[in-house]
Amino acid sequence: MVLTNNKIVWQILSIILIGLLLTFYLIYYLSSIFIVFVTGIILILISDKIMTLYHTILEKKDNDPKVSYTAKLLQGDQNSMLKKIVEEAGEFTFAVKDDDTEEIIYEAADLLYHSLIALASKNISPDRIKQEIARRFGMSGIEEKNSRTSH
After folding, report:
1. In this structure, which long-range contacts are made by residues 27-32, counting pairs with CB atoms below 8 Å and at least 24 apart in sequence?
2. Over the stretch 14-58, which tens digit does the pLDDT of each residue have?
3. Is residue 1 helix, strand or coil?
4. Would residue 51 count as lying in a domain?
5. What CATH number should be reported for the domain holding residue 46?
6. Closest to 117 (Cα-Cα) out of 63, 70, 66, 52
7. 4: left (phi over 0), alpha (psi -120 to 50) or beta
8. What's the sign of the alpha-carbon dihedral 115, 116, 118, 123?
9. Strand, helix or coil for residue 23
10. Per the domain annotation, does 31 fall within a domain?
């Protein structure tokens, strides 16, 4: 049973349906672009803050270790500096396990700081890490692992 035999009605309904599909497609497509855009801005801001922190760490490298915790870590025993990374990684892990959002954020910041200390101790810029992440982007974890030659 056909609702109507009028071709004009069917053409109008077809145009409306195509218009709706295009509208939903554009909304979906533009929302994806918006999400990527916002994520990109956030990453740029975070990257900028990480670079600022890294350069601040480098500036404090030769400060008095009695006054500067950063200088104390950089001028002290390397094992002590590295133990802080392990300690912060453990605290971060337990915060995640405990599902404590505030503690996760706090411990992630501590872990990042101590990781930047270790990078600064070896004069490795976070830009090198960013380059490595960019190299791996779009590659599966298995594919990336198989591409390693000596790591």
Report:
1. none
2. 788 787 777 777 666 666 665 666 556 666 667 888 889 999 999
3. coil
4. yes
5. 1.10.287.1080
6. 70
7. beta
8. positive
9. helix
10. yes
